[in-house]
Amino acid sequence: MLPLRHGRRANLTILALVFVLVACGRLMAAEIELTLQTRDPVSGRVSVTTERVDPRHVGVIAVDVWNYHWCKTATMRVDAIVPRINQALEGARALGMTVMLCPSDVVDNYVGFPQRETVLAMPLLPVPKVLDVECPPAPDAGGCACGSERCLVNYGWDGMHPALRIGAEDLLPDSQAEVYTICRQRGLTHLIYAGFHTQVCLLGKPMGLKSMKSAGLRCFLARDLTDAHPGYDPARNFTPDLNTAQVIEHFEKHLAPTLNFQDEMAKLGRWAPDLILDPVRLAPWGTRMRPHLFPDRVIVTLTAPLEPGAELRYTLDGTAPDARSLLYSAPLILTNTTALRVGGFRNGRAVCRESEGYFAHLLPLPPAPEVYLAELTPVRSVGFGHTYGGVVRYSGDTGPPRPDKSNLGGEIRIARQAFPHGLGVHAPNEVVYEVKPEFRRFVGLAGVDDHVVSLSNGSNLAQYPSLVFKVFLDGREAAASPVMRALGTAWRFDVPLPADTRRISLVAMDAGDGSREDFGDWADAGFLLHP
Fold first, then answer.
1. 3-state secondary structure of 15
2. CA-to-CA distance for 3 and 256, rounded, in angstroms?
3. Averaging pLDDT over each range in 29-33, 389-393, 455-459, which range is the top one?
4. Which residues contact 239 (CB under 8 A, 6 or more apart)?
5. CB 227 within 8 A of CB 241
6. How far apart are CA 314 and CA 319, in angstroms?
7. Considering Cα of 69, then 74, then 77, then 81, what sign does the dihedral take?
8. Are residues 202 and 67 in the same domain?
9. 191 - beta bridge partners?
10. Same domain membership, residue 197 and residue 224
11. pTM of whole model > 0.90?
12. 530: pLDDT confidence band, cut at 50, 70 and 90?
């Protein structure tokens, strides 16, 4: 037996070691018990079972948590779930689970990150085919949740959501072989899937659930950490949340059990019951930086699927909602430009993060001008570059405003529509014309030029153009667009010219986030000679 002083020293040494292990996140429970849900493929009857597993044998794979999607509503639904994913992955790391972040086709934008380079240095193992995984086609609503004003497809994402936390020990694999090699090296037997968009990316991509299940891994879907490739049809009460629920049920019937990650972490004391992570969701979900444009009316649905029973309270004037604000009971019908703010409350206390939506009403299409801009000589024209003594040194590939051409010399195109007349610019830009006595109205369309999507459908770049177009009469702002984005509907201008107007200034500005790829067009723009 050790003398007392030596025993005390040994105990202190052991205690110090315990603290070090805890600090390093390496002191783990031997096993955790997961609650799993499946459904009968025919009847849909739910079955709940439990399964015990050492968390060090579990990998969590988050697929395509991108920073952008061609559908504005889909983009915001990713944004809405990222705080929840961060909380879940924090708990997973603390339990000793291996976290893999898989942004698929933009993963190599992470070269130089140790989380990617570690994977690239691994000698890849051959992947066995252990199971033939048969699955009927999953429900797919088309990927756009903006209703009748459907977004046009582009590939503008260039990385993961900026708020998604990348852990020091996380890995960034991309292929089935890379994920399988990680699993073999780390002794992983179980994979929990999170991310977007469930029936497309989580299901069918090389690192996806079906692929890894066929290689013999035990795979689960975290049903509170995923969102489907969405759709929205308020006429038949079809919402993105309903679409996601249908896809999750399809997985439970035909592919894999699901679990609720929050519940699993809460059982282990790693999810505080009073956390407020989830915002109220909107469909469609326009924002000030990516507005939803509509010509007649828009039907907006509000939901809080992860806070059932919450009262949804909203304002229509841009003020913050509280527990006394208007109570949501049915989809909102908006006919004017509206700044919507929404919160979720229970017993007067906030239980959801606040959400904002911005919906911009389009004017009627203006008539074609009788005098086009190309027929006139501006009295001032400045653009994207450096100006010395009134002479502009244009930056990069940009140039002065081009009559009847895009700024890069191509056809003027906005949202896949070609225009024979107009002015191609790059923000910031101003073109000033004298107003002749016979000019009565300025008319035209304005939007982002399609150049950014003309190559590789806008890969990595289509998220960046963001312009605001303004019309000034003798230095006073007479009309302005909201923020215009790639492949968005052109904004419509119809500006009366008072009889004493001397000059009109057409301005294209960046939207406050820099001028990268800010090529824009004034299309079919000019003057009418009658009121």
1. helix
2. 58
3. 455-459
4. 145, 232, 283, 301, 303
5. no
6. 9
7. negative
8. yes
9. 59, 219
10. yes
11. yes
12. confident
Evaluated on CA atoms 225, 140, 174, 126, the torsion sign reads: positive
Q: Which candidate, 469, 392, 456, places its Cα nearest to that of 153?
A: 456
Measure the CA–CA gap between 178 and 180, rounded to whole angstroms.
5
Same domain, 43 and 167: yes
Q: Looking at the structure, do residues 397 and 487 belong to the same domain, yes or no?
A: yes
Rounded CA-CA distance 285/237 in Å is 16
- Which pLDDT does position 29 carry in this prediction? 52
In a domain, 20, yes or no: no
CA angle in degrees (0–180, nearest 5) for 419-424-429: 145
Q: Are strands 466-473 and 484-485 parallel, antiparallel or unpaired?
A: antiparallel
Mean pLDDT, rounded, for 211-229: 98
Tokens of 270: 């790693």
| 71 CB-contact burial (10 Å; exposed 0-12 / middle 13-18 / buried 19+) | buried
- For residues 168 and 285, membership in a common domain is answered with no
Q: Take residue 437 and report the two structure tokens written for it.
A: 């006595």
Give the DSSP letter string of 259-280.
E-HHHHHHHTT-S-TT---PBP
Q: Which of 267, 295, 311 finishes a domain?
A: 267
Q: For residues 96 and 73, what is the distance between their CA atoms, to the nearest angstrom?
A: 34
pLDDT band at 2 (very low <50, low <70, confident <90, very high): very low
- For residues 297-315, average pLDDT: 97
Is 2 within the bounds of a domain? no
Task: Name the residue range of residue 116's domain.
Answer: 28-267
Domain count of the fold of the chain: 3
Residue 10: is its pLDDT beyond 90? no
152 and 195 fall within a common domain: yes
Pairing of strands 519-528, 371-372: antiparallel
Place of tokens 């992983």: 188
Asked if 436 contacts 383 with a C-beta cutoff of 8 angstroms, the reply is no
- Which segments of 207-323 does DSSP mark as H helices, in order? 209-214, 240-254, 261-267
What are phi and psi for residue 326, nearest 5 degrees? -55, 135
pLDDT, average across residues 90-108: 97
Q: What are phi and psi of 430, to 5 degrees?
A: -140, 135
At 177 the pLDDT is: 98
Establish if 491 belongs to a structural domain. yes
Nearest by Cα to 475 from 498, 446, 495, 504: 504
| Element spanning 178, H or E | helix 176-186
Residue 355: name the closest of 371, 344, 364 by CA.
Answer: 344
Contacts of residue 504, defined as CB under 8 A and 6 or more positions apart, other chains included, come to 432, 433, 435, 442, 471, 472, 473, 497
Find where tokens 């610019």 sit: 425
